[in-house]
Design brief:
It is a single chain. The chain has one domain (4-119): Sandwich (Jelly Rolls). 0% of the residues lie in helices and 53% in strands. It has strands at residues 4-6, 11-13, 21-23, 26-31, 42-47, 54-55, 60-74, 77-81, 86-89, 95-109, 118-119. Strands 3, 4, 5, 7, 8, 9 and 10 form a 7-stranded antiparallel sheet that branches. The protein has a two-stranded antiparallel sheet with strand order 1-2. Strands 6-11 form a two-stranded antiparallel ribbon. The chain is globular. The mean pLDDT is 95.
Amino acid sequence: MQNEIIGERFQVARLADIAPTPCPCGQSRRAFMNEANTVASMHLVEIKHDSELHYHQRMTELYYVLEGEGHIELDGQIHPLSPGTAVLIQPGCRHRAVGENLKILNVPVPKFDPADEFPA
C-alpha cells in the first residue's frame, strides 16, 4: 500500500510508512498534508524527552496518548499523561509533552501549517 490513497471523497494513510519529520515535540509522521485536504491532518508523534515549548495562533490540536507515560505542560500547568488520555489544545496555549517512550496521535484542525508554529 502507498503512504496515502486519495479518492474523490476520501483519503487513506498508513502512518507507519510515512517518513518522520522533526518537530518541537520530537518526530512526527504527518498524514493528509496534501492539497486535496484543508480540514485536518493526523500525526503520529514520538515525543522526545527535551521537547520544546511552543504555540499556534490558528490551529487547535487534539492529542491522544497511545503509549508511554509522561506529562503535558499547558500554559505553565503540568498534567499527567498515560495511554488513553486525550487533550484539547486551543490556539495561543503554550504547550509541550514530555515523557519516556511517549507516543501520541495528534489531530490539528485545520490541517497542520508549519507557518503557524511559534516558539514560546
